[in-house]
Design a protein that fits this description.
Elements: H1 13-88, H2 91-102, H3 117-131
Length: 140
């Protein structure tokens, strides 16, 4: 009958201490690594807790600026609408618009019209053509 534990060698005291030192070094190293990982996790969580309000504040400031721009635009539109309403309730304004559209004038009234941008360009081109002398063919 073979009993393996009887053939087993008993380690010496020095070998036992060496194995204990190896184990304790490994445990110390694992504790250091675990500590570093724990500190990294704490740093990440702390930064998330501290930076999230800052990011939210930034987004709220952007929304406020956008709302302010919309408010300014709405106020300008309202002011324009009020001006149009004032003009529309004025009978003289309606009379003037009707005369302008019908190309009519009151007695003694002179109408002076400014040309549109397109008409202005056409007139300038015609003036340039009239100013430039025609090139005469060469006689050789």
């Amino acid at each position: 009958m073979y009993l393996p534990f009887f053939n087993r060698r008993i380690p010496t005291l020095a070998e036992i201490e060496q194995q204990r030192d190896l184990r304790s070094r490994g445990i110390r190293g694992m504790i250091k690594v675990t500590g570093v990982i724990f500190l990294a996790l704490v740093a990440v969580i702390a930064s998330m807790l501290l930076l999230s309000p800052i990011l939210e504040l930034h987004s709220l400031e952007q929304e406020r600026e956008l709302a302010r721009q919309k408010l300014v635009q709405a106020q300008a539109t309202e002011k324009e609408a009020q001006n149009k309403f004032r003009w529309m309730t004025d009978p003289e304004y309606f009379e003037q618009i009707a005369r302008d559209r019908a190309n009519q004038a009151k007695e003694g009234e002179v109408i002076i019209r400014r040309p549109t941008a397109e008409e202005q360009k056409l007139m300038e081109e015609e003036a340039r053509k009239k100013r430039q002398p025609r090139k005469q063919p060469r006689r050789d």
